[in-house]
Amino acid sequence: MERQEQAKQLLTRCLNLGISALRSDLAAIDVVELVVRELETDPFFNSGRGSALTEKGTVEMEASIMDGPKRRCGAVSGLTTVKNPISLARLVMEKSPHSYLAFSGAEDFARQQGVELVENEYFITEENVGMLKLAKEANTILFDYRIPLGMESCSSGVESPLHMNGLPISVYAPETVGCVVVDNQGRCAAATSTGGLMNKMTGRIGDSPLIGAGTYAGDLCGVSCTGEGEAIIRGTLAREVAAVMEYKGLGLQEAVDFVIKERLDDGKAGLIAVSNKGEVACGFNCTGMFRGCATEDGFMEVGIWEQ
């Protein structure tokens, strides 16, 4: 319960930050970066400080950001010293001729751009060192571990054996961070940031930095995903929400429900979305997903379990 309370406090803080930014007339793209930076700086979730550890006990982070109006995007992977991966993703979008930079090339670009760098140890928490040890003893990829076993969730542990790309894994669910925003001009933006899987192979890239999989924003909506990365990649989940709105004429929540039901096969995932009309939607095919939403007129809601 203490963990749930912590999550609610952090999400509420981020919502307040986002709302005050929107009230100051910041564009949607600025707000998603601002909120995700805050989430990366807090070690509670799996991004930035507090990221999951690779099989070698190091942190390799990834992130992506997308601006709906012109579908501009930036993504980064394999970061080991960049304090705020989401801001580097934004710089890739705005200051490089490319959409995606990874590993040493992304780190070189970070130095050129003068972003804040820290030692890899900064990202490593004592709790995660302990969890990596458990994962190695169990010879498994460990997803999230901080809610009691037996509660199936996009952010929990499950005792039943699950499979990823056909291989069994015994504990499930990362808490990748994401933010979607629509501003008062109807501009949508999305941002996603993660440390990936506990005990992952070094060099593994998940859905979070992949445009169309973990993150997507266009004229109609902005979407950010969390959960089993390999399943999200196969279903191009974030783009699929926009696609069924465009091609099937579905509303935002209908589109989210359709995609969660029809595009995940046996995978477990959740997503948050906003539309250019100011609608908010979320969906997941697991028991819970840490999430929050707020509007400029004062409405605010934070949830974990059923929708």
Automatic annotation (TrEMBL):
Record has Ribonucleoprotein as a keyword: no
Active-site residues, Swiss-Prot/TrEMBL: T176
One Gene Ontology term of the molecular function aspect: asparaginase activity
Signal sequence coordinates: none
EC assignment: 3.4.19.5
Pfam family, one: Asparaginase_2
Gene Ontology BP annotations: proteolysis
Xref: InterPro entries: Ntn_hydrolases_N (IPR029055), Peptidase_T2 (IPR000246)
Catalytic activity: Cleavage of a beta-linked Asp residue from the N-terminus of a polypeptide
Primary enzyme class: hydrolase
Binding residues annotated for substrate, in chain numbering: R204, I205, G206, D207, T226, G227, E228, G229
Subunit structure: Heterotetramer of two alpha and two beta chains arranged as a dimer of alpha/beta heterodimers.
PANTHER family for the chain: ISOASPARTYL PEPTIDASE_L-ASPARAGINASE 2-RELATED, L-ASPARAGINASE
Protein name (record): beta-aspartyl-peptidase
Highest classification ranks of the organism: Eukaryota, Viridiplantae, Streptophyta, Embryophyta, Tracheophyta
